[in-house]
């Protein structure tokens, strides 16, 4: 029996050696063009859906713009309040010099030409 097995194996080549892996042997195939996508100009349902989405987005953007305008108005009110305080301080003490104090307690003026360091 071993001789019969040997003869048939010599006459018929092994199928396992000739096979390649399945994943490498077949190229990937993709859909072509507009397969499965909506029509170019769309039908009534597509147009209605797009209009509803556009309306929702515009409403949301309008709400965001309204909130941002409210925040800007609040910040402008705070800025006006700070300007009023600065004006009152300038009226009381004269011109207020902007700057920072260094470690020795000396004011380093900013924005005033020729002022340098002020005591």
Describe the structure.
Belongs to the ATPase inhibitor family. One of its GO terms (molecular function) is ATPase inhibitor activity. With 119 residues, the protein is mainly alpha-helical. Mean pLDDT is 73; it is low at 114-119. The protein contains four helices and three strands. It starts with a helix and ends with a strand. Strand 1 and strand 2 form a beta hairpin. A three-stranded antiparallel sheet has the order 1-2-3, with no helix packed on it.
Beta strands, count: 3
Chain oligomer state = single chain
Overall geometric form: elongated
Report the span from N to C terminus.
Answer: 115 Å
Keywords: Mitochondrion
GO molecular function: ATPase inhibitor activity
Protein name: ATPase inhibitor, mitochondrial
Family: Belongs to the ATPase inhibitor family.
Quick summary:
With 119 residues, the chain is mainly alpha-helical.
